[in-house]
Predict the 3D structure of the following.
Amino acid sequence: MNRRQFLASTAAAAVLPMPGRAAQTPLTLKAEAVTGQILPEGEGATAMLGFNGSMPGPELRLKRGAPVSINVENGLEEGTAVHWHGIRLDNKMDGVPVVTQNLINPGSSMAYRFTPPDAGTYWYHSHYISQEQVARGMMGPLIVEDDTPPDVDHDITVLLSDWRMEESGALVDEYTDMHSVAHGGYMGNFARAFLSKEQVQQGDRLRLRLINAATNRIFPLAVSGVAGKVVALDGMALKEPRDLGDLVLAPAQRADVIADVTGPVGFDMMTRQGAYRLADLTVAGRNGQRQPADIPALAAPELPAPGTPAQHLTLTMMGGAMGGRHGGANIWAFNDLSDLHETPFGAFSRGETARITFVNDTAFPHGIHLHGHHFYEVSSDGSLGDLRDTSLVAAGESRDVICVFDNPGSWLIHCHMLSHSIGGMRTWVKVA
Ligand code: C2O
Ligand code: CU
């Protein structure tokens, strides 16, 4: 083996071992001003931002293990950058201005090249003044297809968000008022779900890919008219499908559900005032072919097995309204520091397993997102629980996670309530 072959094969095998596959057709995403129909048909349209003329942006469907190039063109009047949320990719392609790239200036473009290692439900969104650009619509679904898809009649993406709007449909142009930053964050007064298909038949088996694309809102969800199970969270297959029950999705979290249609299908957000309808799926006709069958588990993701943790770190969320004092210079902080500093919160040698305790010492829930990796939430009995990229920690609670830091680079860790992130609740880790 010559020297060049040796380098090429270690590079390919290091983080994401998988058989080489042919490159996929290059894609283009143009960030631009769009007009969206957020309010019901017949009501006012909304001037907002989006990609390729639509909000949400187009659903990108990628093949696992095959290199892709996505050219992001900036048709906005301000800079931007796009983050491929949940994809374990090369650090340079992570889409975080200053940390992993320069801004894409108006009129410029950047080709993001990566090879998605894991099948599942992901999403993409702006990572520049994201509390504003995402609230204005810069997001879309990113699906990495299964090598062998489960046997379903429809694969439907359900993207949830909320918007602060006038009666006319115009967005209220206020994304960082200090009151909401210090509380639960920017919240819309109108919420809905966008479905990639509108009609199914009674008896159909569905795969639903639920994505919470809201900037700050936690969605407690109820799906009616189906009988089924949750099969994946944050893109990663569960070992055993789990009862659907009531799902809770923090901002950026995803859930995949496989379910059979038993009646009119509705998606509701559960609120103290009752159910708030986010979307309906019309049921017309009957599927006479489909036989009852158990809900299968999806293929297990190929992630490195955790070793014995070499470090145990604590990440304490601090600040906000009704919170105690902290040493940070902004509204929110981690471990007494607000915003990004030169020293990372954690430094790991590549491949090292670490345990991190997320402590929520504030009066609000937070959804903590780590870039470039998935981690295991540790269950109450101490065993490895779900693999996630965003972990919801309730006010006053804490959660341990275990992560194999196998992806070299500088990676953000921040609250995905984007108002909290801009309000200081962000830091980073270094893997070398
Ligand atoms: Cu989904 Cu740092 O983001
Ligand atoms: Cu938060």
Notes: Residues 1-15 have pLDDT under 50 and may be disordered.
